[in-house]
Amino acid sequence: MSPKDPSAASTWDTTTLPEGAEKARMVRSMFDAIAPRYDLVNRIMTFRLDVRWRRHAVKELALAPHSLVLDLAAGTGDLCIDLRRAGLRPIAMDLSYGMLDNDRSGAPRAQADILRLPVPDASVDGIICGFALRNLVDLDQFFLECARAIRPGGRIALLDVGVPHNRIIRFGNGIYFGKIVPRIGALLSDGAAYRYLPRSVAYLPDRTSLVTMLQRAGFADATHEQLSCGLTQLMVGTRNIA
Hints:
Number of helices: 10
Strand order of the largest sheet: 3-2-1-4-5-7-6
CATH architecture: 3-Layer(aba) Sandwich
Order of helices and strands: HHHHEHEHEEHEHHHEE
CATH topology: Rossmann fold
CATH class: Alpha Beta
Structural class: alpha/beta
Number of domains: 1
Number of strands: 7
C-alpha cells in the first residue's frame, strides 16, 4: 500500500480518534504505509534527539550482558540495534508487517499483537517499547502482559511522547508537534498519518496514572522521567520478585 494512496490515507485522516478494534486496524494500516520513510522523518522531526532518547532507555533497563529483551512495537529496529550495542539479545515484535519488512537490525523478529505476547510466562529478562503506548487499545492489558512475560527481577523501559511541565515549552511544543511536524510528514511521507500522530497524544493518561497502572500490574518501583524538558517521557520499573 503506497503512503500516497488517498483511499488508504482516508482511514486515519479524521478528527475523531478511533477506539477499540477500529483503532487497532487503523494503526496497523497507517504504520504499514509510513514504514519506508519512518526513520528519515523521525530523525528530521526530532533533530536526532530520538537517538539519544532510545539509548537512554536502553541504559535505564540496567540489565546484565546477554539478557533477553523483547522490543515491542519495534518498528524498523532502531532499539534492537541499540540493545545489541549494549550487549543484550533483542527480539523484535510489531503488529505492522510493513515496519518489520523495513527492519534493518538483523534481530529475530515476529509479527504479533503485543497485547497477547507469543511467549511463555517469565521467559524474558526485559521489555522495551518506544513511542507506541498511545497507539495501544488497552494500556492496562499491555502492562499486565509485560508483567506476565518478564521474569521476577526483570526490567521494563517504556518511551513515549510527553507533555512538558513548563507552560512555555508546552506551548512551543504544541505548535511544533501540531503544525510543523504534519507538514514535514506531508512533504516526506504521508500527511494524514502525521496529522494523526500529534493528536494521538490525547490517548495517553497523565504521568501519575501511568506510574500507578505500572505499579498495579506488578512493577512496584515504577518511576517516571521527563526527557528533553518533557518532550519525551520514560517509565521504568522492576518486575516484583514476590
